[in-house]
Amino acid sequence: MSDKRKARRAKQARRDARRAKKRDTGTTATSWWSNLLSGAVRGHPGRLLGLASCLVEVMKPESGERFVDSILDTLVGLGDRDTTVLIAVLAELLFDEPEARERCRREVAERNHHVPRWISALPQLDVYRAVRRVHVLGDLEDVLIGARIDGRHDVTIAVQINHSMCSNIVDGGVFAYPIDETLNRIAEIETNFDAVETDLAEARAWIESALSKPIIVPRETKSQSDRPLLRWLVQRLPEGGECRQPSVDWSEIEEVCARFFSTDAAAPFDSVEHRMLLPELLGGRHDPLRWSALRAELAIRYDTYDDYPLEVALDVPDLLRAFIPFAHAQCGIRDELTAQTVATLDELRSGYKRAVLRRDEPWDVDDAV
């Protein structure tokens, strides 16, 4: 055999190997999707609702290119029953896409497949209870909605809101349990929350407000895939509720500061400028006595307090480190949570001081911190 023929055969062998690998990869992906969809269709309705919500988020992300038509084209090309059931659920979640919704309904009607009764009952979803779980430090809040599908399938839809930033959604999920059981399961894992009953209309106001806020968490987080389901859910909650955000109570802040500056812990920070700085640190929509690690981080990571003398601005981490244990003792916060917040301040202290010192070139940053 000539060298040229050997080279051609070797090249063909490599090409065949690449094609085989591509076929195997496609087969694996198809098998993975089929297994995922099959499990959702045969499981609790909450599983299929969650999967459909994830698919809608891929179809029409908050920003960027839309893929509604192309994904529906792919699904319509699959003639199995499980895909038919999925398309039927998509017809409900695509409530704000009239053309896509009608296409889904038409496709389901043309197929000779049995669709579970609970899907046709989704428009009559029975939403019967709402509970808010607020973290003792005030930065996180869960809103849980208890609902019943077709009179027999209980489901709980939850959303977590982060008030330390802009009261935006940072987590969420669909639970295949009644709301009482879901609350008990969550309480076993997250012990630092207080649960309170809330009106369904108020729950709608909180969720709608959170949905309107910017997405400032990674797109791959679970919270983004649940947004279509949340948007669908709020349409079934009563209107008229209020999303009451706490306002700044400067008289309370002044009283808290006065108590703190009368303690021994405040002795190193007794200048007029320090007494002006602390109320500024305590301002905003948060309880001045409750400080999470994230709140402490936000206080020193994105501000160098340029309006204050350099020596006062440098004291911000140390001032907070003295104040927070005092504040938490006033409202009974556990020592473990206080220690986490203080540890965050200690971790960020040097970096903050370096940033402040860069304002004044004559300083030797390394020597000063």
Report on the structure:
- The chain has helices spanning 3-42, 45-59, 68-76, 81-93, 98-110, 117-120, 179-189, 200-211, 222-225, 227-234, 250-261, 272-282, 293-301, 310-313, 316-330, 335-357, 365-368; strands spanning 126-135, 140-149, 153-162, 168-175, 193-198.
- The chain has a 5-stranded antiparallel sheet with strand order 4-3-2-1-5, with helices on both faces.
- It has 3 domains: 3-121, no CATH class; 125-235, no CATH class; 250-360.
- The protein is elongated.
- The longest helix has 40 residues, at 3-42.
- The protein starts with a helix and ends with a helix.
- The chain has 369 residues and is of the alpha+beta class.
- Helix 4 (81-93) runs antiparallel to helix 5 (98-110).
